[in-house]
Every structure is written in C-alpha cells, then in structure tokens.
Amino acid sequence: MNNNNINSGETSQVDNSKLTIHNSKLAFGQVNNSKFKIYNSKLAPPNSKFKIQNSKLLLTGACGFIGSNFVKYLLENTGYEIINIDSLTYAGNLENLVDVADNPRYTFIKIDITDKTALQEIGKKYPGIDYIINFAAESHVDRSILEPNQFVLTNVVGTQNMLNLAIELGVKKYLQ
Questions:
Q1: Terminal CA-to-CA distance of the chain, rounded, Å?
Q2: Which residues on neighbouring strands pair with residue 21, listed in sequence order?
Q3: What string of H, E and C letters represents the secondary structure of the chain?
Q4: Under a CB-based contact definition with an 8 Å cutoff, are residues 22 and 48 in contact?
C-alpha cells in the first residue's frame, strides 16, 4: 500500500465502499478499488440531502455540557434558529450559554419536558419548528437511586411528550 497525503476534495480507493470525511487530512493510498472523498465543509457535503441551513431547531436540555457546546457550534457554523428548553436541574446551567444569550438566533425558555401543556404552548408560540433534538435526560446513577421516580418522569414520560410534540408539529426529524 502506498501512503500518500490526500487533501480536501481528492479521492482515493479503499475497499469497495464510499466514505466521506469532513475537515480532515488523512494519509491513505489505494486499497481494493473503492472511493472516499474529503470535504472542507463544516456543514453537509456538496449535494447532501440533509440541508437544514435556515431551519428552526428545538433543543431540550441544552444547558448541560454536551447540549451547550452543541448550541455554540450551531450558532457559530450554521444559520439555524435555536430554541432551547431546559428545566435547569442539577446538570443544566445557564452560565454554559452566557456568551450566546444575546444572539438573535438563540432563545432560552425554562420548561420541563414532563409538562405537556407547556410544550404545546412552545409549539404554538414558535411555529415552523423543523427539527427536535432531545438532550434532556436524568443520567446520574447516584440520583437514580435517590430519586427513581424523577428518572422515569424525565426519561420516559418526558421523552414520550417530546415524541408527541414532534408528531403534532410535523417535524422533519426527531433525534434522541
């Protein structure tokens, strides 16, 4: 196998499947006649079917570590409008998003996903939500022992409420 550097947009052969890699430089050569292509795009590759550049996203639990970093990434790299609903329990912290709080494409609303009525109001107040991404979850094992009912409420009932909202709003995709 010859190792050569592959730059953005170049194609090389690997096995018999096509692999797309974003924002990378790799050292590969020809292996078994298949193709992969590298793009510099921070968003979807050219001709991607998953283009949501001007979409409205409803995120839940995005004041936690993973969700807040996802919000920052989206605001920096896309044109998405983001609605973040979070109940600000032990894992959620508004300080995680203080640097984007004034962004006109970002809205925070304190709501618990177990409150079905409040979720329906969000759907009415913010029509045209295209995608829902649910980061809200009870995940600390120690807390599950101390408060098992809260785990069931958030992780089961809350998730079911979000799925029902996705159906009611006719969103294009729901990610859990």
A1: 41
A2: 38
A3: CCCEEECCCCEEEECCCCEEEECCCEEECCECCCEEEEECCCCCCCCCCCCCCCCEEEEECCCCHHHHHHHHHHHHHCCCEEEEEECCCCCCCHHHHHHHCCCCCEEEEECCCCCHHHHHHHHHHCCCCCEEEECCCCCCHHHHHHCHHHHHHHHHHHHHHHHHHHHHHCCCEEEC
A4: no
The pLDDT score that the predictor gives to residue 157 is 80
- The residue-averaged pLDDT of 24-50 equals 39
- pLDDT at residue 58, as a whole number: 96
Q: CB of 123 within 8 A of CB of 165? A: yes
Q: What is the pLDDT of residues 83-111, one digit of tens each?
A: 999 999 877 888 999 999 999 999 999 99
Q: Is the four-CA dihedral 93, 94, 98, 103 of positive or negative sign?
A: positive
Q: Report the alpha-carbon distance of residue 14 to residue 33 in Å, rounded.
A: 6
Question: Do the beta carbons of residue 132 and residue 162 sit within 8 Å?
Answer: yes
Strand arrangement, sheet containing 35-39:
11-13, 35-39, 19-22
State pTM to two decimals: 0.66
